Amino acid sequence: MDLLEWPPKGNKRHPWEISRLNFFKKNIMNAHLNDRALKILDIGAGDGWFSREMLNILHPDSTIVCWDNNYNTETINQLSSITNRRIKYTSLRPQGKFDLLMLLDVLEHINDDKDFLSEAIKEHMGSNSLMLISIPAWPMLYSKHDLHLRHVRRYKPKKFKSLLELSGLEVLMRGGFFHSLLLPRLFSKILSQFFYRQRNVKDIGDWQCGHVLTRLIETALAFDNNMSIWLTKYEMDLPGLSWWALCKKRSL
Questions:
Q1: How many domains, the chain?
Q2: Angstrom distance (rounded) from CA 241 to CA 178
Q3: Residue pair 146/241 in contact by the 8 Å Cβ criterion
Q4: What is the pLDDT of residues 187-244, one digit of tens each?
Q5: Quick one: pLDDT at residue 209?
């Protein structure tokens, strides 16, 4: 969760967040990254919930550094008080190399995304390091919600894949996800253009729906995730609301 949306009201996590977490858990297990101890850097970690939950499937000797330059002392103290000792929080760029870098829905916040990505690769990736990355897809879907979250852009997946490669990465696995949300978002965007009404943008931390509806949405998104994983297995890149990739540093 972005710090703009933290803390969640009533300790409820949005079904989108839970689905996203489960999607990446499955991909990490499919890549056998949970078989060994990893030193992980979570860049733009927000409230750290994703990393805290990810520890449940990782090797018990794995550690995570959550780096977010929006942290202040109070936030770090709050997060540290609810966190496993294997996770550390910092607002300053960490030193050294990591086995796995996670940049999940981060680059859309960065004005100079190419320089930021290249710097992360140079400073924190060794020859055997991996990067797990995701971005919101399709510029035509840029909306008031993106603006609220201070997103600079959304990306065309093909163009973003080229950015990864130009930055010195080799894409090992990739694909779209949240396929079922693509058409509703497009429909919402079209309606907002022709029948515009000023509405407050709700954060994902505002999720207040009941248990039954929440479970129905989580089940539908779980089916969506399983389809995405199957498509990735057969290298079929079906468009989705988001796009992701697992990359390694390209050999010179």
A1: 1
A2: 5
A3: no
A4: 888 777 666 554 555 555 565 677 777 788 889 999 999 999 999 988 898 999 999 9
A5: 72
For residue 252, give the H/E element and its range. none
Region of poorest pLDDT, from 25-34, 37-46, 63-72, 192-201: 192-201
Q: Is the dihedral of CA 67, 201, 157, 177 positive or negative?
A: positive
Residue 132 pLDDT > 80, yes or no? yes
Rounded to 5°, angle at Cα 24 from 120 and 201: 85
Q: What is the CATH number of the domain that holds 238?
A: 3.40.50.150
Query: Are the beta carbons of 152 and 109 closer than 8 angstroms?
Result: yes
Rounded alpha-carbon distances, angstroms, from residue 132 to 190, 202, 245:
32, 27, 6
Supply the range of the domain harboring residue 232: 3-249
CB neighbour list of residue 88: distance below 8 Å, 6 or more residues apart: 63, 64, 65, 66, 80
